[in-house]
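Reply to thread "Modeling small-molecule complexes from scratch"

Following up on the discussion above, here's a worked example others can learn from. I took a protein sequence and the SMILES for magnesium ion and predicted the complex. Inputs first:
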Amino acid sequence: MKTVVLGGGLSPERDVSLSSSSLIANALLRKGHKVALVDLYDGIEDDKISLETLFREGTSDEYTYKVPENEPDLEKIIADHGGRREWVGPRVLEICKMADSVFLGLHGSHGENGQVQAVLDSAGVKYTGCNYLGCAIAMDKDLSKALIAGAGYRTAKWMTRPYDKITVGKVMEELGVPCVVKPIGCGSSCGVSVVKKEEELQAALDYAASFKQLILVEAFITGREITIGVLDGEALPIIEIRPHEGFYDYKNKYQAGLTDHLCPAPIDEEHTKRAQKLAEKFFTILRMDSYGRIDMFYDEALDDFWFIEANNLPGMTDTSLVPEAAGAAGIKYDDLVERIALSARSGE
Ligand SMILES: Nc1ncnc2c1ncn2[C@@H]1O[C@H](COP(=O)(O)OP(=O)(O)O)[C@@H](O)[C@H]1O
Ligand SMILES: [Mg+2]
């Protein structure tokens, strides 16, 4: 099978994505597929290159990518490409059409919000992960909470406002503290703050506003944080997340040793089944398909679960949460990657 692994793109998570994409590409090479790793933004600028030669085969020529220490400077990358803001690079669609399918290794807005999926749909290209609508809904924390709440499930009370209209006074009036402030459509905890005191609220609003999206503020939930991968509509073993300090922020997510992952989570069978059923239900309500991950909290006092948010292109490095949960279910990384690759389909 011929696969294009699409990574990179113009998102703050482009480096993380190129790293996941290399691992995905190598897993597919080990499985005997022909693979070309393509950067969604860079594309293939040299029109003399034969696209066919970009497909690799065998394991002697694996991809390597090391995430640089600093976040990418997107404006510099744009400047290096002659100021081009068009985010689908030259010849990207052309090479995607040459493959049997596209494995989406993208993270962040262009990739997770449904736009890339819609572009691929329009070209009749098969791709992995959720359809464009599921992506658009899951990437919008306000819309997804509204659908989950509307279906009668628990999600923390929340308010959503334009980033330049939200004030400390309004938040105190509607929600108070403790609360959690976040941009509606980021990932990796970018822009997220847990606010315990009113004095901390302005800084949290300013930080979220720097992402220039709608801001969502929700009540702080006390409980055990869990995340549940869903593969082909079925929940994987639950992972409990226990940061040593604070909440599951960017640092606690990506720096080794700062957070314990317990998989399968030390939760009894009855509660495990309940949580897994809920994750499957949320997946359906949000119109997700293929695979994804649902973040939730277990509230012991209420003996119930809270929906936090959904992820439609969750991290796919070999140590990311979905591969870890799949591992606990006996699915090895390479098998997981191949299974996802084989499930690629076109939304037409
Ligand atoms: N309502 C909440 N109550 C308590 N902690 C929360 C709440 N919402 C988010 N968090 C914490 O913030 C982290 C990031 O928030 P999340 O909505 O999952 O954003 P992201 O898309 O960046 O992962 C969560 O993993 C959790 O630790
Ligand atoms: Mg999350």
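What I'd highlight from this example: The first helix runs from residue 14 to 30. The chain is about 35% helix and 20% strand. Questions welcome below.
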